[in-house]
Amino acid sequence: MSEQIRVRFAPSPTGPFHIGGARSALFNWLLAKKYAAGKFVLRIEDTDRVRSTRESEENIKAALKWLGMDWDEGIDVGGEYGPYRQTERLDLYQKYTDQLIAEGKAYYCYCSEAEIEAERTALKAENKMPIYQGHCRNLTPDQIAQYEAEGRRPVVRFRTPENQQVRFKDLVRGDMCFDSNGIGDFVIVKADGIPVYNYAVVLDDALMKITHVIRAEEHLSNTPRQVVLYEALNMPIPTFGHISLILGKDHTKMSKRHGATSVDQYRQLGYLPEAIVNYLALLGWAPQDEKEIFSSEELIAAFSMDHVAKNPAVFEIDKLNWINAQYMKQAAPERIALLAVPHLVEKGYISGPFSEEEMKRFVRFIAVIQDHLSYAAQVVDFAAIYFNDKVEVSVGEMSESLLDETAPAVIEMFKEMLQALDQVTAETVQPIFKAIIKAFKANGQKIGGQKVYMPLRVAITGQMHGPDLAQIIEVLGRERVIARIDGAMASVR
RNA sequence: GGCCCUAUGGUCGAGUGGUCAAGACGCUGCCCUCUCAAGGCGGAAGCAGGGGUUCAAAUCCCCUUAGGGCUACCA
Questions:
Q1: Is the pLDDT of residue A395 over 70?
Q2: Which of A28, A207, A294, A484 could lock onto A299 through a cystine, CB 3.0 to 4.6 A?
Q3: Residue A329: which nucleotide is closest by CA–C1'?
């Protein structure tokens, strides 16, 4: 592969930025970064004026940046092949359209949408391929004048060569071959003068000197249309690579039904961008070795289109969660704390951002629960341990552990020993538990760790499960721990 | 309907004519442990079906089946 590699990501800004789009972008980005002279360009395909929005374009850019995929050329950053928004390139396209028409490779078609629709329906009824039958292929000047007089606005159709084998090379599918007769004379410019996707994409990719077009498989069947256009335009055909689609759990195309599908939803849930990138890379591509966790740099080094899978991949949230958890364990607690703030606010634990001092303390708590988290929003599952000073002991196993006959003595001893400590840290607290067991033993009573830890855990956290108790005590501090214990004991008495 | 793509455990996937068919997630057993996680060590679980080709097929060919895409004046 040449070092002059130029790839692009060309999304349509028509909605939330989808996880599948992110993977397409990633594969292109990885390919560009692999080569010193590689360039990744970001182009906005907004020819669908009804559905395209600036808001969506901003989302895409923000998501790409969040994921760490910087672009060398394109929207916002510019470059020598701009502009990079298709609606700003209309005059450029016009030149080539005129040329195609002049050469007889394209022609005006005055058929109305209703007429086309009727033709299509009829063909389908006969079990034939619903392709344009060429009604306006060879209009006389008189006919054209007649249509113009009727006020018809023409589209431009491409005169697709007949009886031709359209071939192209696909990096993931191998050599592809389509029959040109299955294509028909398709529209390249709509009645409003705006080129259609299949046409604009060819012009843009050629003009922007794109060498490799890596995109989703849904475009595979469109590729022969594009290839005939490249040929008619006398422009070099890029190398294609059609990566398979990402499916939901039920093996249908990922949609809202499958839960979070947009990059932004994952960002809001407190997933880490490195983890998303890592997971996406593993979806449809496999490294040569058995490595699973990759930094961006490692990904760039290891990535190759040679090992991109052909079959569609099911998006498995469990695996993403596992990968994200791997990154969470390594992440700075400060970062996780920051990501958790909106969720803590939402649950009413706090009313706004932490003060600097509060943050410092909360970060210590995060360090304690860090290994329990798949993503930052899950902090709320542990937040009660930290925030609820008024411990609620539910009747049942919990209250029983406090009403256990050894419990009062355990708790009294614990309080005394905790008070006696110079410094309350996990290291100084831990020996207390052992000391209590020993004290019972000296008294002729054998009790297990369970009888010591559980009443204390329940009295301090109001829960029977949770992270290391000594660490929780360190984070909470002596006063709050004592107060919680007293409150809890009072509530069960 | 036509054209096209795809098919290895529940999932991601290694595998490119000769392997006891990797590894990971998930599930599960044990260890660790106050608990829940994390971590460590094990286990169950797979070549969609049928025909060929070949001494030999997950691997090559054909058919069937299933899933998906395209067939727009969407991208």
A1: yes
A2: A294
A3: B38
Round and report the angstrom distance from CA (A181) to C1' (B54): 38
- For residue A154, the SS3 value is coil
The one-character DSSP state at A238 is P
**Dihedral-angle region of residue A74 (phi above 0 means left; psi in -120 to 50 means alpha; beta otherwise):** left
CA–CA gap between residue A143 and residue A122 (Å, rounded): 24
Report the protein residue whose CA lies nearest the C1' of nucleotide B6: A311
At residue A72, the 3 state secondary structure works out as coil
Locus of tokens 């690579």: A241
Distance from C-alpha of A91 to C-alpha of A97, rounded to nearest angstrom: 10
A326/B38 CA-to-C1' distance in Å: 10
- Extract the runs of DSSP E, i.e. beta strands, from A104-195: 106-109, 155-158, 165-170, 174-179, 187-189
At A3 the pLDDT is 58
Q: Give the pairing of strands A313-314 and A246-247.
A: parallel
Cβ A269 vs Cβ A377: under 8 Å: yes
| CB atoms inside a 10 Å sphere around CB A412 | 13
Q: How far is CA A263 from CA A15, A173, A259, in A?
A: 12, 27, 12
Residues A51/A261, Cβ–Cβ less than 8 Å: no
Active site residue A256: yes
Which nucleotide is nearest to A48 if distance is taken from CA to C1'? B74
Which nucleotide is nearest to A290 if distance is taken from CA to C1'? Answer: B23
- A256, A329, A390, A434: the catalytic one is A256
* Nearest in space to A7 (alpha carbons), one of A48, A34, A55, A39: A39
**Å: A177 CA to B63 C1':** 22
The dihedral formed by the CA atoms of A123, A127, A128 and A132, expressed in degrees to the nearest 10: 30
Cis peptide before A83 (omega within 30 of 0): yes
Note the strand B nucleotides within 7 A of protein beta carbons: 1-8, 10-16, 22-26, 33-39, 67-75
Interatomic distance A42 CA / B53 C1' (Å): 49
Among A76-85, A143-152, A390-399, the minimum mean pLDDT is found in A390-399
pLDDT digits (tens, 9 = 90+) for A191-229: 999 999 999 999 999 999 999 999 999 999 999 999 999
Nucleotide nearest residue A114, measured CA to C1': B73
When the pLDDT of each residue in chain A is averaged and rounded to a whole number, the result is 93
**Residue A314 CA, nucleotide B45 C1', distance (Å):** 19
